[in-house]
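Hey, quick one: can you model this chain's 3D structure?
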Amino acid sequence: MTDYLVDNSVWARLASRDAGITARLRQIERAPADLFVTCPPQVLEFCHSARTADEHVRYREQISMGFPIERAPDETLVLDIQHALWDDGLVRAAGAIDILIAAYAICNGATVLTADHDFDHIARVSDLQHEYVAPTH
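Sure thing. Here's the predicted structure for all 137 residues.
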């Protein structure tokens, strides 16, 4: 069983009808033991993409279909990840929201599904489990 915390890079590619992203999400959706999960920073990032109030309502409804994960990371973990990026020369390789999402994933044993390389950098300096799905167009 795998809990997938889906990064906004994947949702954006899905919206553009990327075939590879669509196929991978369908595969997870059909796997009886796999779940889509959410956490507050991931929901916030997803909803931030809305361009109108009505779209924000739709995005919020869509993202609420995932199961909320239970444990929040403490400040130490989040800052340790950020510091480890600094120590590894990856000063600005991942933004604050991605670091928070990664920390939630680590605390809950979830895998971040992503279509960009920010989480590669975080995984390099932490215990993050992630899966990169290459965009097909």
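One thing worth noting: Helices lie at 8-15, 19-30, 40-48, 53-63, 75-87, 96-108, 118-124.
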